[in-house]
Amino acid sequence: MILIDYKDTRPIYEQIVERYKTLILKGALQSDEQLPSVRNLAMELSINPNTIQKAYAELERQGFIYTVKGRGNFVSGDSGLVDRRKNEYVEQILALVREVLEIGMSKTELIREIEAL
Amino acid sequence: MILIDYKDTRPIYEQIVERYKTLILKGALQSDEQLPSVRNLAMELSINPNTIQKAYAELERQGFIYTVKGRGNFVSGDSGLVDRRKNEYVEQILALVREVLEIGMSKTELIREIEAL
DNA sequence: CATGTGTACTATCAGTGATGGTACACCTAG
DNA sequence: CTAGGTGTACCATCACTGATAGTACACATG
User: Fold this and answer.
1) Which structural domain, as residue segments, surrounds residue B47?
2) In this complex, which of B93, B98, B100 lies closest to A97 when CB atoms are compared?
3) A94: nearest CA in chain B?
4) Domain assignment present for A4
5) Using CB atoms, which residue from B25, B105, B117 is nearest to A97?
6) Stated pTM of the model
7) CB proximity B43 to A under 8 Å
8) Helix/strand/coil (H, E, C) string of A58-73?
9) A6 part of a folded domain
């Protein structure tokens, strides 16, 4: 479910955050489904529990999961997540598109590339 | 010409690299035009010469400038730069597009957003 | 030669990601 | 109630990286 890429320059906790965000947004994890415990996931990935803790805290801060002390971490049921995330993506994409247009790429060529996906 | 954003999380040398890449690709700097000397730019930006040195070394490594020892750094005349850079942008954009499509955004809506730019 | 250029070092500092370890509070199953 | 699993909060330490400070040297130009 979760894999760490040590060649990735991003910190481990950030990779975990991104991975869970993706899993949740794609619907691979159901609402209120329980995540591995801090200690279990740390064992499984052979990393420190504090690193998992940091990742989970960030996921909670962003509304992707919620925490019940003494019980565990669970997938949030917030339905607005997907829409908010879509907007983030669109903003990122548009920013890149603006830059590539500025160095002379044509909008139609770019759209053709996207159509071809 | 060059501005440092201390709120930016990226390191200073990286901001300088990106800034010059953009200036060169947009044609704001002519081929063989001389860049500020390591010491001058460091003074102007109130940062350490070593940081500028690091940025210039990276720009040279990527082929955006060339160095003549004892004379200075100059804008490269490599005409393939723009095309290579375009491809980099397209790859980045397509990667993001794939992700946003996976969470349920429609391709036509996305294209509409790009058209609207 | 003097000056301005790039280059190469070394040492040091600060911030951050990650680890290791301890301790405590909470919940649930038995 | 107790034991064991859960999250949480610390603290100390280490490694890496970005940045600074300073020195020294080689090269090019006037």
Assistant:
1) 12-75
2) B93
3) B114
4) no
5) B117
6) 0.84
7) no
8) HHHHCCCEEEECCCEE
9) no
CB contacts < 8 A, A to B, total 87
Same domain? For A33 and A59 the reply is yes
Strand partners, B74: B34, B66
User: Distance between terminal CA atoms of chain A?
Assistant: 26
The answer to whether strand D lies under 7 Å from the CB of residue B73 is: no
B102 inside 8 A of chain A by CB:
yes
Q: Which residues of B touch A90 (CB under 8 A)?
A: 100, 105, 110, 113
Residue B110 lies in a domain: yes
Number of domains in chain A: 2
**Residue B1 and residue B24: Cα distance in Å, rounded?**
12
Same domain for B89 and B65: no
What six digits make up the tokens of B52? 């500028």
B104 contact A CB<8A: yes
- How buried is residue B81: exposed, middle or buried, by Cβ count under 10 Å (0-12/13-18/19+)? middle
A85 and A47 in a common domain = no
Q: What is the CATH number of the domain that holds B30?
A: 1.10.10.10
* In a shared domain, residues A19 and A71: yes
- A28 at B interface, C-beta within 8 A: no
Q: Which of helix, strand or coil describes residue B116?
A: coil
Residue-level pLDDT, tens digit, chain B, 117 residues: 889 999 998 999 999 999 999 999 998 999 999 999 999 999 999 999 999 999 999 999 999 999 999 999 999 988 889 999 999 999 999 999 999 999 889 999 999 999 998
